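To assess whether ligand presence alters the predicted conformation, the chain was also submitted together with S-adenosylmethionine. Input:
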Amino acid sequence: MAIFSGEYLRLGPLQTRIETHRRYSEHTDDVEAAVLAQLRLGRAESLLDVGCGTGSFLSRLRESGHTGQLSGLDSSPAATEVCLALPDVRAVTGDAIALPFPDGEFDAVTARHMLYHVSDVPRALQEAGRVLRTGGRFVAVVNHADVTPRIASVVREQAALHGLAPMASPNADVNSTGLPAQLSDVFSEVSTVVHDNHLVFDSPEPVIAFGQALMNFYGVGDDSPHREAVAAGIGDEVRRWFASNSIPWRDPKGYVVCTGSR
Ligand SMILES: C[S@@+](CC[C@H](N)C(=O)[O-])C[C@H]1O[C@@H](n2cnc3c(N)ncnc32)[C@H](O)[C@@H]1O
């Protein structure tokens, strides 16, 4: 069961998570570069980024001199708005399972860290294939099933203390184990690149900020009356751990970049 969450009605928590991975990964973690390496996108080719989020991928492409048409689609109006403000980028609010584009419209389609949230993943993959021209490339990124388990368990436990039933893990059904086979149902020449890494923290503050940016996924919605208490509990737990340990906080993480051709 994939989940939908109101998480993306505002982009702050997503930005915090992206920034945490950028600053605190043991080995450099540049998901966008990993996608571009597999995509082999020609400068004049057209691209649709499904679940475009903060727009940083589209912005990076434009700033690097990409001349082809760039499009973003996201179910969150906040994301669409950010992407529409980028130079020469078209963006629409919509659902990955019903892309509002004609058949064969794009040379390339990407779906980075977003398939977890889609209600019908096989249908989203079919849709990505439909809007690709023959010979076009699709690249998806999904996490391993159990990423950053230590901070996840702190958030889950603090939510549970307030009677909040944690949602299914976003990666429970859509993860690096199953994605290659799912792509093979729709695309040819499927290839997979695995990226394993750790988040490593020497101080509590960035761990706390990261944990608090995960709260929505563990049943603590923006409007929950327990939000402040859960946030404070995460802070207390993480500070307690650092007070009694003189080693860094290490949390394993990783993802796959899966590529298929139409
Ligand atoms: C984890 S964020 C990833 C954003 C961006 N791709 C990145 O890697 O930084 C997931 C994004 O997918 C969007 N999303 C969730 N469900 C969606 C759906 N059914 N169709 C399109 N976008 C969706 C969310 O609004 C959010 O912007």
